[in-house]
Amino acid sequence: MDAPELLSGAEVVTSKLLYALGYHVRTSDLTMPAYIYRSLMGRAKAIIDIRRHNSNFCAEHFLEMCRRQVERAIADGPIAYGEDVGTALKAASALLERVGLDASAVDRYPHEFSGGQRQRIGVARALALQPRLIVCDEPVSALDVSVQAQILNLLKGLQDELGLTYVFISHDLSVIRQISDRIAVMYLGRIMEVGDSEALFTGPNHPYTEALLSAVPSVDGEPRVRIRLEGEIPSPANPPSGCVFRTRCPKATEVCAKIAPPLESAGAGHDVACYHWRD
Predict the structure, then answer these.
(1) Which of these, 187, 156, 168, 155, lies nearest to 252 by C-alpha position?
(2) DSSP string covering 93-143, please?
(3) What share of the chain is helix, strand, coil (3-state, %, to 5)?
(4) Which DSSP symbol is given to 237?
(5) How far is Cα 228 from Cα 69, in angstroms, rounded to an integer?
């Protein structure tokens, strides 16, 4: 940047910066006053840093990758952050081996792989930017039980090896129990209960958690009383007042309709959002 630009208070902002901020533009360059530029640059740097160190891995990654060869699909992230293309492609080959696939698969397309293999490719893509945290959104929901176990073992092995943190989203409670250290039970976007995995499974406090766990098949042969919730699930766009679970809760009273219950401690590291959890 030369002196006239600095004196005029104008600096060049590229479309890449605006893309990082969530603005999709096609113009090659835009100009704006320096103070706005500095503010945007601060936000962009923070967003870029967050995105680089937090990856997303979900069951739909196949749809994102289906038009690209596996090697390029894995390398796209590092290349977007400025890594040399050759280096990124070489790292992609190594990542395929790390997740249990043959490096010779780099030239193949995702539709040529099985469901379990595609999930391994999704894991490789998530690892490409060397993240500290990975969001796993229903990563094994479309797989059969045996392949689910393989992917979960892969994720746990990588977690131990690389010190990763997972935010694991699933409706399958058996999968959640297998991989999670702590669990947050949500209903209509609100946390009902949160606690250590074993404590929550063996001693649930919220009526919704109790109902969910009652539906899990027993593996020890002991009969389990099923708690069946009555009524329809409310619309997330128009949730009930107060506690969002109250319209289906067997313990609901008038107070539940007035104010949403806050999370309160139910023991060490165990919190519950319910006025009647002690009942």
Answers:
(1) 187
(2) HHHHHHTT--GGGGGS-GGGS-HHHHHHHHHHHHHTT--SEEEEESTTTTS
(3) 45, 15, 40
(4) T
(5) 47
Residue 38 CA to residue 44 CA, distance in Å, equals 10
Angle at 271 between CA 269 and CA 275, to 5 degrees: 155
Q: Structure tokens of 5?
A: 């630009």
How many alpha carbons lie under 13 Å from residue 16 in its C-beta half-sphere? 6
pLDDT, one tens digit per residue, over 41-61 is 555 554 445 555 556 655 555
Rounded distance between C-alpha atoms, residue 187 and residue 243, angstroms:
10
* pLDDT band, residue 40 (cuts 50/70/90): low
Q: Give the C-alpha separation, 180 to 175, whole Å.
A: 8
Instruction: Evaluate if pTM is beyond 0.85.
Output: no
CB 226 within 8 A of CB 243: no
Q: Where are the beta strands (DSSP E) in the chain?
A: 10-14, 29-33, 54-58, 133-137, 165-169, 182-187, 190-196, 264-265, 271-272
Q: Which of 129, 120, 137, 264 is nearest to 206 (CA)?
A: 264
